[in-house]
Every structure is written in structure tokens, then in C-alpha cells.
Amino acid sequence: MNSLEILLLDNGLSWTWSKITPYLISLVFGFLLVLFLKKRMSNYGKLLRVFFQLFAFSFFFILYFSFYPIYEGDFTNSSTQIERTKNNHELAGQKIVVLSIPGCPFCYESISRMNKLIERNPSIKVEYLVCSDDVESLEWYKEASGENISVNLAKDPASMAQLAEGSFPTFVLVDGESKLKVWSNSSFGVLAMDEVQSSF
């Protein structure tokens, strides 16, 4: 998330529209630049005018995209449903669980998104389950998570790592139903964030 996306989130836009809107704004600026240049280029040849107008229209979009590119997973919402078994019985209640491992930078980076999720919907409970038996590994996450996110060691780290299929962080929506909804990090885009936020 960049500062413009955060500003749009803070002003009530959804996660999806906060991601899309800056690109739309850049195209509007491009269109205004085309209008500004149109009369000033009346003496140029038609082919040259078309080239400059296309460049002007796409300039701000390309500039913004170069700083904040769209990655494959940004707009994804590809979850899988997993049956509840005795191996994942520790995932109980109604919350979003983030399966993580010690020292995982992507897990750590996800904390800011989870804090923003809670800020937008305070009824959401978020828990980080660290797949480890080393209690000291929790401190790294606790320092960044604040008081709204609980950080615990997984009771059965092997089963939780198996649920994550070795991909961390993995996000699990626990809602008391018979199935768990699971996203890998690459499939947990803004569409998934909107779905999770609306689930509470």
C-alpha cells in the first residue's frame, strides 16, 4: 500500500477501488494533458500529433505504474476451501488467521495490511500463528503487530505448515463453518481483502 491508496482507504473506498483509482486518476491527467497540447500542436503533421497525444495520454499512467506496478496477485481472490479435521482443530472461533514462520519478511509485511483491516472494521479478529516451537520467534511479530493482533505459537506447527502448503504467509478465514477458506499470499489480493472485511 502506498500513501495515496491509504488516503483513499481512509476516505471510505474499498480495498479494490483504492487500488484502481490512482490508475484512473493518472489516465484523467493524461486526457487533460492531451487537451492542453492539442491546440499547441496544430502545425505538426497528423502522424506526429497522434504519437504525442498517445504519449501524453499514457504518460502519467506509465509514471505511476513505474513506481507502483501491478503485480499478478494484486487483484486476485483465489481461495480454496478446506474441510475441518482433527489436524486443524486449533483454528476455532471467528477470525482471520495468518500462518507464518519465524523471520519471514512477507509475513511481517502483511501486518500493516491486517492492522488497516482492523482499523476499517474493528470487529475483525486477527491472529498470527507462528509455525515454530521457539517462543522467542514471537517477539519479532509482536513488536509490529500492536495490541489488536494476537501472536501465538501454533499448537501443531507441522499441521499448520501442511495447511499452508509451505507458502507463507497463508491467510485462513475461520468463521465457525464446517470448512476453512484459505488463501496463499499470492492469491490474497484486494478482492480477497474486501471479501474478508465484509465477512465480519
Describe the structure.
The protein has helices at residues 3-10, 15-38, 46-67, 105-120, 138-145, 157-163, 190-198, and strands at 80-83, 94-100, 126-130, 149-153, 170-175, 179-184. With 200 residues, it is an alpha/beta fold. Helix 1 packs across helix 2 and helix 4 runs parallel beside helix 5. It has a 6-stranded mixed sheet with strand order 1-6-5-2-3-4, sandwiched between helices. A hairpin with a 3-residue loop joins strand 5 (170-175) and strand 6. It folds into 2 domains: 3-67, no CATH class; 80-198, Glutaredoxin (3-Layer(aba) Sandwich).
**Name of the CATH first level of the largest domain:** Alpha Beta
Strand segment count? 6
- The total of helices stands at 7
CATH topology of the largest domain: Glutaredoxin
Structural class: alpha/beta
The span between the termini is 22 Å
| Helix/strand order, N-terminal first | HHHEEHEHEHEEH
